[in-house]
Design goal:
The structure holds two protein chains of two kinds. Chain A is mostly beta strands. Chain A is 0% helix and 49% strand. In chain B, strands 2, 5, 6, 10, 11 and 12 form a six-stranded mixed β-sheet that branches. Chain B is mainly beta. Classes of the chains: A mainly beta, B mainly beta.
C-alpha cells in the first residue's frame, strides 16, 4: 500500500547531538514537505522540495537542513540539537495535482534534553 | 497573502449529536481548493473532505459535509452522528489552483466527543 513513513516515531536525545529524521514515500510524489508542530498543535512549514535536488526553506526559520537526492527520500538533519528543537515533526508529500492535498506521515516526536 | 482562520480552539459534542466546525479564509483568488484534515491523538493526519471553489454543490463524505459559502469566504465542517473516533484536531486548509502553491493551514480545532 502506498504511504509515507517517518522514523523514528519518538526520539529523546541530548543537547549537541546530531540527528536525522527520516521520511520516505512510496507514491512517487515529486513534492515533499516538513512541518514543525508546536504544543498548541499549529503547523509551521520549515522545508519543502519540488523534486530531486530541489529544496527550499519554509515560512518558519529553522536551524535544520534537508536533502533530496532521491524522489522517495526527504531526510531532515539537525547538526546540533538544542532543547528549543523539542517538537513534533511531520513529513508530507503531494502528487502536485491541485485537488489531492497532502499525504502525511505519522510524525516524529523529538525531545532534546 | 492567504490566511485561514479557525476561531474555535476547542469544541465538544455529545456522542451521536451533530457538531459544526468553523473556518474562514482570506483570498483574492477565484480558483482554489479547500480541505479539512483530521489529526487523531498520536496518529497520522488524514484528509477528511475537499471542496473545489468552482463547484457550488457542497462536498459530502458519509457523516462529514461542508457548508461552502464562497462570497462569505466560509468553509465549515459538519459532523453528523458524532462517534468517539471523531475525537481529534481538525485543520482547515486552503490551496490556490495554480502551479506549485502550497497548502495554507488554519490553527486547528480540538474536538472532544462526550460519551
Amino acid at each position: 500500500e502506498a504511504d509515507i513513513y517517518q522514523t523514528p516515531r519518538y526520539l529523546v536525545i541530548g543537547t549537541g547531538k546530531k540527528i536525522t529524521l527520516e521520511c520516505s514515500q512510496t507514491m512517487g510524489h515529486d513534492k515533499m514537505y516538513w512541518y514543525q508542530q508546536d504544543p498548541g498543535m499549529e503547523l509551521h512549514l520549515i522545508h519543502y522540495s519540488y523534486g530531486v535536488n530541489s529544496t527550499e526553506k519554509g515560512d518558519l526559520s529553522s536551524e535544520s537542513t534537508v536533502s533530496r537526492i532521491r524522489t522517495e527520500h526527504f531526510p531532515l538533519t539537525l547538526e546540533s540539537a538544542r532543547p528549543s528543537h523539542t517538537s513534533q515533526y511531520l513529513c508530507a508529500s503531494s502528487a502536485g495535482t491541485w485537488d489531492y492535498g497532502y499525504t502525511f506521515g505519522s510524525g516524529t516526536r523529538l525531545t532534546v534534553v | 497573502a492567504q490566511t485561514v482562520t479557525q476561531s474555535q480552539p476547542e469544541m465538544s459534542v455529545q456522542e451521536a449529536e451533530t457538531v459544526t466546525l468553523s473556518c474562514t479564509y482570506d483570498t483574492s483568488e477565484s480558483d482554489y481548493y479547500l480541505f479539512w484534515y483530521k489529526q487523531p491523538p498520536s496518529r497520522q493526519m488524514i484528509l477528511v473532505i475537499r471542496q473545489e471553489a468552482y463547484k457550488q454543490q457542497n462536498a459530502t463524505e458519509n457523516r462529514f459535509s461542508v457548508n461552502f459559502q464562497k462570497a462569505a469566504k466560509s468553509f465549515s465542517l459538519k459532523i453528523s452522528d458524532s462517534q468517539l473516533g471523531d475525537a481529534a484536531m481538525y485543520f482547515c486548509a486552503y490551496r490556490i489552483n495554480f502551479g506549485n502553491e502550497k497548502l495554507t493551514f488554519g490553527t486547528g480545532t480540538r474536538l472532544t466527543i462526550i460519551p
